[in-house]
Amino acid sequence: MIQIRGLKKHFGPKEVLRGVDIDIPDGKTLCIVGGSGTGKSTFIKCIIRLLRPDGGSIMVDGTEMAHEEHEYKLSQIRRSFGYLFQEGALFDSLSVWENVTFGLPYLTEIPRSKYRAIAKEKLALVGMENVEELRPSELSGGMKKRVALARAIAAEPKYMLYDEPTSGLDPIMSDIINDLILDLKRKLGVTGIVITHDMKSAFKIGDTIAMLYQGKFIASGTAEEFAKTDNPYVRQFVEGSSIGPIKMKLRDLD
Question: Which residues of the chain have pLDDT under 50?
């Protein structure tokens, strides 16, 4: 389980996370929703210590991550995580199979002789057979996203962090990615944390949905509870309405 209590992070005078509390049980998927610039990406970067929190506690399987000073201990815990970046972050100079296995020398003791077989296996899990020798420039946006997902699961992580997994994809491809996330949870038993603006995705894949607003989770619950909520902030976000208590300015938009 991941247990987070009082998590804080600021950049200069700006408080991004102002005391976040949440539990993520093993084998479940948490979807984090909220407007642009509310700290969603900051939240998951703090979990794996790409960013150092300014306060609070992050317990991963009983180990405190928030203020761990030893890089070796941090690296050992990070081995439990896979990370799907928003834009895929594939290396154009490498083939598909080389991209998929890029992290294995740093995360595992698996001999290099097995890398191609692992790449083929993980690509098959995301529906990408017979593309091992292609370059990212030869792939569509949806294909790149799936290759990036294969890379994220190559080391068989216990936890998966997804940063806007359906961003930039058409509705059909978005649903394919959603089905892949559900399939990986069933087949691999991974615990997932998904950042998304896509409420259709959140309702489909989230065991729990939590909304981040002004540095805190203002609501959390099942998809059914979220759909029926009377919270005006959540209601406005779910409906995608410009009318409501959330006031956005053009400079706040991505």
Answer: 250-254
CB 106: neighbour CB atoms within 10 A?
10
DSSP state of 85: -
From the CB of residue 86, how many other CB atoms can be counted at a distance below 10 Å? Answer: 15
- Domain range for 187 is 2-80+158-252
Q: In this predicted structure, what is the pLDDT of residue 247?
A: 72
144 in the same domain as 232: no
Is residue 4 within 8 A of residue 57, CB to CB? The reply is: yes
pTM of the model: 0.85
The beta strand positions in 69-176, using DSSP E, are: 81-84, 159-163
Kindly state the tokens that stand for 147: 């290759």
DSSP string, 161-224: EEESTTTT--HHHHHHHHHHHHHHHHHH--EEEEE-S-HHHHHHH-SEEEEEETTEEEEEE-HH
Give domain status of residue 59, yes or no.
yes
